[in-house]
Amino acid sequence: QVQLQESGPGLVKPSQTLSLTCTVSGGSISSGTYYWSWIRQPAGKGLEWIGRIYTTGSTNYNPSLKSRVTISIDTSKNQFSLKLSSVTAADTAVYYCAREDVRAASWYFDLWGRGTLVTVSS
Amino acid sequence: DIQMTQSPSSLSASVGDRVTITCQASQDISNYLNWYQQKPGKAPKLLIYDASNLETGVPSRFSGSGSETDFTFTISSLQPEDIATYYCQQYDNFALTFGGGTKVEIK
Lengths: 122, 107
Prior knowledge:
heterodimer, A: about 120 residues, mainly beta, about 0% helix, B: about 110 residues, 4-stranded antiparallel β-sheet, 11 strands, globular
């Protein structure tokens, strides 16, 4: 079955750029029926949607993070990636990649990675 | 942005109790509202989509209702395995937002 796996550094210095990759296995990221999202969760807090990308490369971002976020897709590697610039301690969180099913009129996150903890600290 | 106000932020109930969580949207989102369950250390899991549709394989004690700005999530008979945090999520526009979450505990 399809699985998502986040990867990337677990520690990032303040002011630097956080970079994560989500690898899709067991299925094609090029399917035209899914958006691919990044969502984060600080320890003990709620979920925050960061942004998403479609197979065409079209993106939508959380307005509160838009100036610092870039999401890209590499269909040849079956991966999509997140870059978050100028990070601070407030960006410390578990970062999830997730698949949003948009095949029908109902859109929802039907598949999630296990999440990866990224700590921003010097 | 569409803000999602979820309440209560936490609750404690006994096994077998009926549990109700509400989610209020800052503007009309029709029925574009999903509910997720998150257990500690795990990724969220979809329970309800489009406000009232039960995801395949989810026990029927879970249900959802509502439209426009006011939504309700109900567990008809709380079970020990339902201990988790529950989140609503709207997808009315291209800036998705989640509610703040409701932590459900056993009394």
